Structures are given as structure tokens and as C-alpha cells.
Amino acid sequence: QSDWPHIAVYVPQYQRIRIKRSSRFDLIDPHKTNRVFVERLEDLAPRAAMLFRPAMLRDLDHAGCLSGARAIWSQWDGYLKQERGLTLLAELETRGIPLDHAHTSGHASIPDLKRLAEAIQPKVLVPIHTYEPEQFPAHFQAVSLKNDGEWWDVAT
């Protein structure tokens, strides 16, 4: 939510290229007010946390903002044993960036999920990774129950 207090949006080079090629400037227009450019990353780094994608490493190297950085891995550790995970580990090691593991297995309370749903205001809410999806309609609006492995059209 780029309009929340103390939230900034950095658009990585690879995304800027895609936006320019597709003329989809409308995707970044809503974030203009809180957009941060590469030139400010070094200054912000000591007091900021960033949602990171490995494709952003070149940008962050160029910005010179990785000194003292730490990476926090919040996904299943098994992904780090796959090719892309091993590549990421090597890239972090090359830069001297320690990796902390903080996977919580996805557990969230109903009050926390309600706060999230209120903030996002989805048109449709599809419960996943839960043993009791049938309880969601009692707590949330616009719930659509799907079976594991079921595909559905999200454009409708």
C-alpha cells in the first residue's frame, strides 16, 4: 500500500523496461507520490526494509546500498535447495549478506486476516492453505471456495 505512512515504492530497472515497452505507465502512476529512485536507496538503506526480488540485485549493487544488509527468508527453506535458491544463496554470499530464516508456516489469526482483507478490499477472497475453508464465509465477504488444484479465471 504505497499510500500508507512511511511506505515508499522502488520500481526496479527490469520492471521499468517492461512498463516502457508495453506503455503501461498507468501501473506506476498511483505510486508517484511515494516513489523512490535508485539515487536515494543508499541514503535510505540504514533505516529501511525492502521487499526484495533476486532480479533487483544489479540495481542494488549500482545504488551502493547493500553495506550492512541482511536478507530475511520467509518462504519454505526447500526453495533454497532448488537451482534458483542456490543461485540466490551464492549471490548473497558473494556480497557478504547474511540470510536469516523466518518462515512462520503461514499461520494467521482471523483478526489478522480480517485486517488484511479490510486493507486490500478484494473483489473476491479465495481461502488457500487452510484446513477449514468453509468457515471463511462466516468471517469475510465475497468468499469463493475452490478445491486444491482447481483452476479459475481471476479476470472475472
UniProtKB/TrEMBL annotation:
Residue ranges of the Zn-dependent metallo-hydrolase RNA specificity domain? 103-130
As given in the record, the signal peptide range reads none
Q: Which Pfam families match?
A: RMMBL
UniProt superkingdom: Bacteria
Gene3D superfamilies attached here? Ribonuclease Z/Hydroxyacylglutathione hydrolase-like (3.60.15.10)
Q: What sections of the sequence does the record tag as coiled-coil? A: none
Which GO terms of the molecular function aspect are on file?
Answer: hydrolase activity
* Protein name stated in the entry: MBL fold metallo-hydrolase
Q: Which organism is it from?
A: Candidatus Afipia apatlaquensis
